[in-house]
Each structure stands twice: as C-alpha cells, then as structure tokens.
C-alpha cells in the first residue's frame, strides 16, 4: 500500500513539472524575442541614438546651398550600418521582427527631418543671396578689340558732354572694400553680392546713413566726406583672398582684385547753363547692376583704353600693348530741386539732353564723372564683379555716390565750374 501511494503521488508531480518546464521555456522564448526586437532601441548602439549623434555633430556636407550630404534619399544615415543590415538572432539567422522595422523607420524619419532642415536652410540662402546657381564667367562676345570700335560712339544722352571748369576731389584709388550697398540694400550684409571699391568716406558699409557718414573720416585730401563706390575689376588669372567668401567666390566673383592705378572724382559743368551747387546728402546711382536681365534702358557702360578715349564701348575692350584699361562712370545731373534719393525709378536726377543741357524745370547740378584706370590684364582674362546671375556682363557697370560736400565746398565747386577754372 505505501509503495502504491508513492507511485500515485509522483505521477501527478512529474506531470506538473513537465507542464511548468514547458511554460518556463515558452516564457523564455517570448521574453527573448521581445528583447531582440525592442532592446536595441534603448541601447547605446541603437540606430536612433546614432541618428541623434549625426544631428548633434552636424553634417559636414551640409552647406549654404542645403546639399543633402551622405544620407540616402529616404533619409537613412550612413552612420547606421546596423540598422541597414538588421539584427541577428542567437542562431545567426536574420531577424525581420517588427521591432527592427520600427527602429529603421525611426532612423528614416530622423533622416527625412534632417534633409528637410537642410532644404529649409538652402531655401533661406537662396532667398537671401539669389542666383548663385547661375554664376558663370563672361562670354567671349562680351569683349571687343578697341581698334575695332568706331570713334565717337558713346551715347550722347547718358552724360559726358561737359563745359566750363572742374572741381576734383583727390581721394586715392581704394580706401576699403566690401560687398554691401547701403543705398540699394540698406542694413543687409552682402547686399550687392559683389565687391565694391570705396574712396572718400572711410566708414561706408551696409549700415551707413546720413549721420554716420557725416561723422566719418575721408580719404579725400580736400576734406570732402562724400562717398564714391563702384564694382571691382578682377584679373581672372589670379586668385582672390575672398575665394570662399560672400561677395567673392560664393557669388561667382573669382580672381585677384585689381586696384586702380588712378581714380579721378571730378565735377563738370553744362554747356550754356549755370551750374548750381551740389545738394548736400544727395544720393545717386548710375547704371544698372542687373542690365543683363533688365535690358539696356539704363546701361551707362563706357569702357575704353588709354590712347583711344575718343571711342568707348559697352563691351570689355581688349587694349593693345602699352595701353591701359579705362572706365568712365557718368552720373545724371539734372535735379528736380527737391528729392535727395535718386535712382532710375524715381528720376529725381536725370541725364541732360544730347547737347548737355538740362530740360526746363530741371536744376543743372555738377556732372560727376568717375575715371578709373587699370593696368591692362592680358586678353580676355579680366571681368567686372556682378550679381551671380548677371554673369559678369560689362553692361552692368555702375557707380554710387552721396554728396557730403560742406556748403562752402559745394559753393566753391560751382564757382570753379562756372568761372572755367580747374580746382
């Protein structure tokens, strides 16, 4: 009896043990699968964390133009080989559990967010500095041999017909440079997207105004605080120190900047008309910096060569040996008598008639001519700085001026001009 009792008890116990063992094994498998699927997301080697590391350190290929960098089109980072390859179970077989798919999806989502951020940065750059993708060197047709240009072909309705005396401010050839333009793009760094040479006022930049300029110094020997500026010319065979800078290489303006060998800022008179004093703080722009796309209406470009100044061209002149490159920038000089901010749109100051006289109702003020001379670069190896989409067209030549002559200096200039003296 006792032996049979032990056998009857042991049988059920063994059955319970077998069932318990099976339940434990099933639980182990279940928990093991869960760990394989979900565990790596929380571990130090997870795809999500690696994606965060890429985000934190920055993508070295992401730049001003919003380039995509090393990420795939779907946004999965190149720093995620484990996510790309998937996970392996203990038996070495590929694990395609849904948990791994979620991890990869998370990495992809982060990649897409990163690319979207890069795209936004690129869009902001495009809006701030447009046209960079259109930068190109000047065309061969932008050049002409000066000996092929007929004499006397300058437009007679864009200034340059002078009479009487002159008043010249000797201001040097280049006081400072930047790619700002406080007249056309006030308060915006690199508003010009090309480099300007400045003489006269020593403080001119994007944030200049009447008060700051009046408080500034000057490079002019006669104390004229006026600001004069124009786009630089570059030798395309050289290398500029701004090759990776805004206004320089980033905006398609490459090559070594040429400093003028001379820069004359001269006020001239009108034939048969008395010239009134230059209004203080009058601002003027001559030419059209976007003439390649805007058309020829406001083109004032007058390029020539020393020894051939009886002929000018809107193209870059190829000068013979021993001749220097010359630019004339003539400013409008018939004022409405009221407005101190002038450009081609508001016509506060316009050019004289073909005979050099101002039409009725217009005040004849001094005609400013900037004469800029450079050592002649060889052949077609030079170009003007321009907005990138203007592709260095010589027709975009332009100049800017704000008069800060004192009242006494302005009266002296008018007296010299009207009396036929050169001052």
Descriptive labels:
disordered N terminus; 2 domains; 423 residues; five-stranded antiparallel sheet; 20 strands; globular; 26% helix
Strand percentage: 15-25%
What is the approximate shape?
globular
How would you classify the helix and strand content by structural class? alpha+beta
Total number of beta strands: 20
Work out the radius of gyration: 36 Å
SSE sequence, one letter per element? HHHEEHEEEEHEEEEEHEEEEEEEEEH
Helical fraction equals: 25-40%
* Tally of domains: 2
Strand order of the largest sheet: 4-10-18-14-12
Overview of the structural elements:
The chain has 423 residues and is of the alpha+beta class. It has two domains: 2-128, no CATH class; 142-418, no CATH class. Helix content is 26%, strand content 19%. A five-stranded antiparallel sheet has the order 4-10-18-14-12. A hairpin with a 5-residue loop joins strand 1 and strand 2 (94-95). Residues 1-20 and 23-114 have low confidence and may be disordered.
Provide a compact summary of the structure.
Helices cover 26% and strands 19% of the residues. The protein has 7 helices and 20 strands.
Secondary-structure topology with pairs:
Layout: H1 2-42, H2 47-57, H3 81-85, E1 87-88, E2 94-95, H4 98-128, E3 143-145, E4 163-169, E5 176-178, E6 196-200, H5 210-215, E7 227-231, E8 233-235, E9 256-258, E10 262-269, E11 283-287, H6 291-294, E12 302-305, E13 316-318, E14 325-330, E15 334-335, E16 349-350, E17 363-364, E18 367-374, E19 382-384, E20 398-402, H7 407-418
Helix pairs in contact: 1-4, 2-4
Protein name: DUF1996 domain-containing protein
Domain DUF1996: 186-378
Pfam families: DUF1996
């Amino acid at each position: 009896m006792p032996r049979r009792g032990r056998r009857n008890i042991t049988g059920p116990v063994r059955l319970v043990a077998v069932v318990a063992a099976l339940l434990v094994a099933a639980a182990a498998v279940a928990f093991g699968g869960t760990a394989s699927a979900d565990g790596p997301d929380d571990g130090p080697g997870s795809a999500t964390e690696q994606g965060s590391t890429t985000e934190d350190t920055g993508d070295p290929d992401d730049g001003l133009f919003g380039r995509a960098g090393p990420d795939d089109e779907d946004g999965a980072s190149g720093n995620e080989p484990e996510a790309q390859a998937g996970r392996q179970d203990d038996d070495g077989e590929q694990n395609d559990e849904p948990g791994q798919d979620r991890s990869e999806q998370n990495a992809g989502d982060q990649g897409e967010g990163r690319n979207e951020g890069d795209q936004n940065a690129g869009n902001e750059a495009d809006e701030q500095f447009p046209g960079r993708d259109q930068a190109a060197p000047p065309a061969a047709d932008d050049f002409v041999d000066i000996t092929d240009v007929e004499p006397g072909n300058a437009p007679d309705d864009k200034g340059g017909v002078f009479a009487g005396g002159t008043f010249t401010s000797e201001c040097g050839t280049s006081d400072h440079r930047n790619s700002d333009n406080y007249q056309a793009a006030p308060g915006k760094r690199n508003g010009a997207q090309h480099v300007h040479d400045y003489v006269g006022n020593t403080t001119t930049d994007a944030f200049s105004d009447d008060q700051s300029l009046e408080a500034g110094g000057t490079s002019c020997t006669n104390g004229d605080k006026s600001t004069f500026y124009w786009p630089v010319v570059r030798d395309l065979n050289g290398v500029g120190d701004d090759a990776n800078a805004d206004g320089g290489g980033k905006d398609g303006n490459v090559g070594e900047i040429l400093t003028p060998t001379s820069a004359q800022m001269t006020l001239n008179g009108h034939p048969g008309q008395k010239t009134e004093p230059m209004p203080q703080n009058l601002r003027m722009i001559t030419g059209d910096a976007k003439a390649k796309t805007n058309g020829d209406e406001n083109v004032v470009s007058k390029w020539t060569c020393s020894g051939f100044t009886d002929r000018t061209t809107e193209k870059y002149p190829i000068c013979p040996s021993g001749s220097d490159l010359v630019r004339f920038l003539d400013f409008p000089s018939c004022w409405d008598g009221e407005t101190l901010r002038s450009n081609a749109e508001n016509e506060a100051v316009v050019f004289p008639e073909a005979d050099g006289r101002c039409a009725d109702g217009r005040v004849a003020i001094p005609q400013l001519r900037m004469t800029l001379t450079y050592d002649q670069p060889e052949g077609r190896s030079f170009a003007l700085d321009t907005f990138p989409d203007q592709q260095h067209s010589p027709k975009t030549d332009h100049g800017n001026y704000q008069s800060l002559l004192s009242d006494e200096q302005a009266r002296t200039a008018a007296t010299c001009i009207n009396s036929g003296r050169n001052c």
